[in-house]
Amino acid sequence: MTIAIGGMIKTTLVDYPARIATSIFLQGCNYRCGFCHNPGMVPAGKPEYPVDPEEVLGLLVRRQGLVDGLCISGGEPLMQAGLGAFLRRVKAETGVAVKLDTNGSFPGRLAQLLDEQLVDFVALDIKAPPALYGTATGIKGADHRPVGESVALLRSRKVDFELRTTVVPGLAGRGQLAEICRWVGGSGVYVLQRFRPDVTLDPASASLHPVPCDEMEQLAGFCAPHFDRVLVRGC
């Protein structure tokens, strides 16, 4: 079982809706979003502060009855070839519910985990409207179509999920959100996350000002007709 874990939060009340969870952060991402709030997890390879997968499993076993969820974040977790094997052990040895945070760019790998019922909740990031995907992800010519495939996959399966967009000035204003709603609107929950300038991959992003909370609520109302429910986080 090979999986590169670059960080862990032993107890969190905010990463997995309605559950007390442990969160782990997998090393490496295929995107280079300037506004990324976890830049230490972006480079591939050996983590600076590695966490042993056996430590995570042991912690979950010892805390059965106290912790009922595991959040897998990153980085981009689906880049890790050993993720499936790790989650099989998590399910077999602990039985906790698993939440996966993903950028949606690997629909085939996501489908494999769903087919094995290794994931119970998926949070999928919609970085920007299709025309701005390269700008948002820092990858010239980034293909948005796999993300759309992942959204369709989630809607076709019996799995809890949410779509979410970080409201970055210039990437997720009213006009851009209108395009996102036309692209991925439909059933499910859509979350607008308030941009955090405190720690970012691109230092230039730190100079951007977060959208005021009253405006965040207005944007949520604007998106509301396109989803079952729209939430604001970070206010």
What features would you describe in this structure?
This protein has an eight-stranded mixed beta sheet with strand order 1-2-3-4-5-6-7-8, covered by helices on one side. It contains seven helices and eight strands. The model has no long low-confidence stretch (mean pLDDT 93). The termini are far apart. Strand 7 (189-194), helix 7 (213-223) and strand 8 (229-233) form a beta-alpha-beta unit. With 235 residues, the chain is α/β, with parallel strands linked by helices.
Which structural class is indicated by helix and strand composition?
Answer: alpha/beta
> What is the subunit arrangement here?
single chain
Q: Strand order of the main beta sheet, please?
A: 1-2-3-4-5-6-7-8
Order of helices and strands: EEHEHEHEHHEHEHE
Mean pLDDT, all residues: 93
Radius of gyration: 17 Å
Let me know the number of strands: 8
Query: How many angstroms separate the termini?
Result: 39 Å
The number of helical elements comes to 7
